[in-house]
Amino acid sequence: MLADNGYCGDWLASLFGKNGGALWYALRRSREAASEEESALRAWHRGLRARIESVFGSLEDQFQMEETRARSVWGVMTRVVAKLLAYMVGFLANEALGRPGTALKSRYR
User: Fold this and answer.
1) Mean pLDDT highest for which of 31-35, 46-50, 104-108?
2) Helix (H), strand (E), coil (C) string for 14-64
3) Residue-wise pLDDT tens digits, 77-90
4) What total of structural domains would you count in the chain?
5) Is residue 8 a contact partner of residue 27, using CB atoms and an 8 Å limit?
């Protein structure tokens, strides 16, 4: 699992390790990088986290992921899956047209 700095800590990483998983997190900026490799890993991690946060923001803003207005658990699951599928179709359409995949809002203007 890729986590942000709020989840850094060896105790949480060991908890994931007990169940056969792995927790990756970047060290806090207040701690110095021990090597060039660690500095490059931190930059990669920040870039990947920024991409994840922008996808979450897009799902929340454009697809109103937090408001499903469903009345049952099946209704919530159905609507969430439909919204994720709509996001993926838009992403793949942009990629096929040679546009950035996450530029969904500009696609319809």
Assistant:
1) 46-50
2) HHHHHCCCCCEECCCCCCCCCCHHHHHHHHHHHHHHHHHHHHHHHHHHCCC
3) 998 899 899 888 88
4) 2
5) yes
Residue type, 17: G
Provide the residue type at 89 as one letter: V
Instruction: State residue 107's pLDDT score.
Output: 52
pLDDT value at residue 108: 53
Whether 16 and 57 map to the same domain: the answer is: yes
- CA 82/CA 6 separation, integer angstroms: 30
pLDDT tens-digit map of 5-26: 666 667 777 777 777 777 666 6
Judge if 78 and 93 occupy the same domain. yes
Q: What's the domain range around 46?
A: 1-61
Q: How many CA atoms lie within 13 A of 99 on its CB side?
A: 14
If asked whether residues 22 and 74 sit together in one domain, one would say no
Judgement on whether residues 49 and 86 belong to the same structural domain of the protein: no
